[in-house]
Every structure is written in structure tokens, then in C-alpha cells.
Amino acid sequence: MSEIRVRIAPSPTGTPHVGTAYIALFNYCFAKSQGGKFLLRIEDTDQTRSDRLFEDMILQALRWTGLTWDEGPDVGGPYGPYRQSERTEIYREHAQILLEKGHAYKCFCTPEQLEEARQAQFKAGFSTGYDGRCSHLTPETIAQHERENAPFTIRMKVPESGKCEIHDPLRGLIEIDYKTVDHQILLKSDGFPTYHLANVVDDHLMKISHVIRGEEWLPSLPKHLLLYTYFGWNAPVVYHMPLLRNADQSKLSKRKNPTSILYYRDLGILPEALINFLGLMAYTLPEGDEIFFLEQMVKSFDIQRISLGGPIFDLQKLTWVNQKHIANLQPADLLGRLMAWKFNPDFMGKMIPLMQNRMPKLGDFMSFCDFMFYSEVSYDPSQLIPKKQESDSTRDLLYKVLWEMEKVPFPTRDDIEALCKKVGTLHGWSLRDVTHALRIAICGKSVAPPQFDVMEILGGDLCRNRILQAINALNPLGKKKLESLQEAYWQAASSYQVEEAT
Ligand code: GLU
Description:
502 residues; mainly alpha; 20 helices; 9 strands; binds glutamic acid
């Protein structure tokens, strides 16, 4: 049998998500239990949303979990480069092959034409996928567009009738009607591939034998299987894992649960506990033990034991698992973990300058900065509201600060000061009122070291979660109202930047 090769393929478009660690874990166990290889590939073809900073964070976070990869952008390997933005020429060549074989076509539709067609389909009650009009262009029309250097995308052809049969060993046979499958764009007009083309080409060239990914990718599989057939390649075996869910069964989202791996690290969750917990989301050891280490999971791993029920990302359970792992540590090891966590020269060293002129005695150090070490801060929600302000307005302000904070994953004190000023101006609040609400949300008290410095040291992940907790303590908005507040805010924010710039 050929070598087992699996991969995790994160897109660096946001902070490292626990869902990535969850999928990585199952890929890792699958490979390692059979002497195979586990690869890491960065899927950064979306030029507008991908950021090297996020890539660094993802690598840092996954390394922290202990799921080490055999090949990847940082460690190299025989099938590199492992960053898709460095492979664009390969995708262009493959798109060309599909054009030549007649499995893809150039689409010259402008964004306006596409929008018009979509509206018309919508009004007529049809599905709003691409209507395939450019697949019927005559060679003369194509040549004419080419002479005019008209911009184009390359789309894949999809059979007009019939069904795609998918065999997922976890789910059995799934049939998807080709009528519901869009003529996917493979190469965008800027010459960059979409996820579908790059993913299939890379899985083939990197000799991936099995794909284990989230169930949200199931609808894409007919497109991928068609591409394998068009190229004349064997498709890997594909498994779709159940998605992690919020307590209300909805897909795990940062609005309801912290989702960043680095948040859990900064909170003081041990990496082995996070891995244990993520394993429990879809797997039980044959002996039924709930507390286990990665090596035990690898040893007993059998992919058919994965359970498909919607796993709830239950923070209480995570805390329980963590507590068990902490209890099992040797005291000296626990001391080492605590020191590595926050009681180290780096973290404490950042606090010292803020505290030096405030503490009459060494023994007063902790009372000024205790909140830096707490999992959560507690306060009466009414304390969040500055004098002469209202509860709802405070909540809305905190949402706006949260959205701005999401744009700067590692904010410096200057970033935080600037965004607080901006939000204050747009919200009609003084900076003093903004920092009052934030001081309570972050520190749980009104007397604390300088707010922006504290937030920089605490880090974006913990700060964002405390702001979210404060919002929840007030009166969080429902989905619709939240969306309209957000829309109005970003609209106002765009003219704020214009005013600033002129
Ligand atoms: N880049 C995709 C993601 O971010 C990879 C999906 C896959 O595993 O095919 O999840």
C-alpha cells in the first residue's frame, strides 16, 4: 500500500482557530497511527484576506499544541513550496491544461453582468449560481475578446444532468445532483487560483492519500471529484468530520465562544488538555477513558470510531479536563508551567515599569495587578457604565471597540489608544468615558495601571474575551440589530478615516 500522507491546510485569514487544531489532531492521529506523514500547507490564495501575521500565529499556535508536522513552509519537505502563494505558476499551468482538454472555459462576464444575471435568477426563483453562458461562446467571440484583452476568469465545466456519487467512509454514500453544482471559478481574473483548484492540484502533487476535513467542505466535493477526473488523477479518500458547535448547536463562532487557540493558551489551559478535549469532541478511547494524552490517542486510533454527532465546545468540560491534567502534573512540573505561563521575566518584566511608582511595599504588587492573572474578572455590570451614560450606549461602545480590536490581533498600547480615540469620537464619547468602561471590563476595578499598557500586555485574545463578557453582562444585541449596528459603524468609520486623511 502506498504511503499514508495527510495534511492540515489552514487559510491565514484570522487568528488560529480551535477548529484548525481539532482537524489537525485527527489528521495527525490518522497518520501517526499508521507510520504516515502529516503535512502543513498554507492556503493563502485569497490575497485580500490572507496575512503573514496570521500565518505566523497559526504556526505558533499549532506548534504549542504539540501536533508537529513532517513537512511544511517552515520545515520544508520534498513537495514544496508549502505556501500556495508561492505556487501560482503551477495552478496557471493546470488551469491551462483544463482549458485545452475542454473541461474549463474562459468567462468574460463583467461583475455587473454577473450581478444582473443573479438578480434575474433570484426574481425568477431559480438558484443563483452562474448560468454558464460563456461555456457556449463561439471560437470567434472568444478570439474577439482575446484581441481586446478583455479580462476573464477560468471556470470549470459541470455536467448538466446526473448525480455525483461521493463515498465518505464515515458517512456512506452521498449523492449530489450536478444541477446544484456551480461552474466554479478556478482561476480569477488576477491570475490567482481559487481554493478549489489549488487544493486539488496540491493534494495530488503532494501525494495526499487521505483528506480529513470539516463537514462544511462536503458540498465542494463534487467539484473536486470532477477536477480529479478531468486531470485523470486518482482522488484521495475523503472524510468529513463533524463541526464543533456552540451550546445552542450553531457552528462554533467567536461571537458566542472564544475560538482562538492562543486565547486558551493565555488563559492557562495546558496544551495536552486542549488536545485531550478536542479529541473527546469526536472520539472515545476503546477503554472509555476520558483523560488521555496524544500518544494514547495515536496508539488506539481507528478512524471508524469517530462519532458524527454535533460536538458541543463546552468550556466547562474543557476546564474539567484541564483540571485533571493539572492535578496529574508533578509539582515541579506545575511550577515550571506557571512560570512559563506568566511568572516569567518577560511577562513580569513588562508589568514592573507600570507598577514601580504605585506600590508602597512589595506586598502591594499583586493587589494592583491581580486581574492580569485571573481567568475572569468580576464586577457589578452597572460599574461598566460611566456617569451620565446609558447601559445600551455602553454596550454599543464595547461592541465597536471589540470590532476594532479584531482588526489588530497583537495590538500595541498605541494601537489601542488610537482605536479608543476613534471609537470614542464616532460614538460621541470622551476618551475618559471609553477608558472607564474598558477599565472595568478588563481590570474589574476603576483603579488600575495605565489602561492601554495593561491591554497590550494582557494581549488581544484575553482583552477581546473580557470585552465580550462585559457586553454579555449588559444586554447583548440579537443578530439583526447587531448586524445593523455593525454596518452603520463601519460606514461611519470609513468617513472617519477620510476626514483624518484629508
Ligand atoms: N483552506 C481550507 C480551510 O481553511 C482547507 C480545507 C480543506 O481541508 O480542504 O479550511
